[in-house]
Structure formats: C-alpha cells, structure tokens
Design brief:
about 170 residues; about 15% strand; Rossmann fold; alpha/beta; 4 helices; about 40% helix
Length: about 170
C-alpha cells in the first residue's frame, strides 16, 4: 500500500477527482462449467477490486470527488448461465449504495448500468455511457444512484408475438 501511495503522490500531486471502476470478466455460470475458482475470480475483479481501489485512493480524493462504478442491467434481470457476471454486477450495485452511505460528505459514489452494448455496430451507446460518467461526475447532488442506460430495454413489457418473441412451454 505504501508503494501505491507513493505512486499516486508522484502521478497525481493535486489529488483524485474521479475514479471509474469498469474492469470486469465473466466465466459463465452453473450450467457452463464455471468453477469455484472462476466464480471467485469474477467477483474479485467485479466487486473486490473496485472496493479495494476506492479504499486505496481514499486519502487522495479531493473535495467533491466522485466514484462511478460500471454495473449492468444484469444486476436487475438474468439470462441462463450468467451467474458469475450477474452476481458481480449485482454486487457492484450493492457496493455502490453502501459506499455512498459510508463516504457521504467526502466522496460521492454512483453506478451506471448499461444494457447490451454492441460497440462494433454503433458508437451511440458507448458515447451515451461516457456522457453519463461526465454527468454524474459534474453533479454534486447526485449520490448513491444507479443510472440505467439501456434504451428502455428493462422497462419494455413483451408479450407473445411482440418484437419477434414467441412464448413456448
């Protein structure tokens, strides 16, 4: 930790304004052979690392600093065989509001939950996420929130024959 502190002091002598926790990995789920070690690794990258990095930077955050955790709509809804990723994203949403309570008045902590992002086909959605990071970083009264950016996907009620979807038993 001392080496990290020295690195931060040398690299960022004025302090830290913004931390964006965005790293993630996925190893599938219970049906796809996700081992205990794989599941644990996913949680370490998706939840433990953001906690620890925030803790390490705590002495260096400037007044009004902001932590933004990149979560996912997978924290709110699921697809088969995605337990490692879904659990980590659910964990980062919970960590966000818990750290916001602990760090209130010192550092604001928010999350962004993107839906599907295909950055090979469109630049719009990645740009939306980047603008949301800037928005949260620049608005000091927003704290402990999870901003869902998914084009309305998680709020769309789908019935049989809607949008090409078929109900099958």
């Amino acid at each position: 930790m001392e080496k990290f502190a020295e690195f931060v002091k040398c690299t960022l002598p004025e302090g830290v304004d913004l931390l964006v926790n965005n790293a993630m990995s996925s190893h599938g789920g219970i049906l796809g052979g996700c081992s205990f070690e794989d599941f644990d690794r996913t949680l370490r990258v998706g939840v433990v690392a953001p906690y620890y990095l925030t803790k390490l930077l705590l002495p260096f955050f400037k007044p009004g600093a902001s932590v933004i955790n990149i979560a996912s709509t997978r924290a709110l809804m699921s697809q088969a065989d995605t337990e490692s990723y879904s659990a980590a994203k659910g964990g980062i949403v919970a960590l966000t509001h818990a750290m916001a309570a602990s760090l209130a008045g010192r550092v604001r902590v928010n999350a962004i939950s993107p839906g599907w992002i295909d950055n090979s086909a469109s630049e719009q959605t990645p740009a939306d996420i980047a603008r949301a990071v800037v928005f949260l970083a620049e608005n000091p009264f927003i704290n402990a929130q999870n901003l869902v950016i998914d084009g309305g996907m998680t709020k769309l009620m789908i019935y049989h024959n809607d949008h090409g979807w078929k109900y099958e038993t």
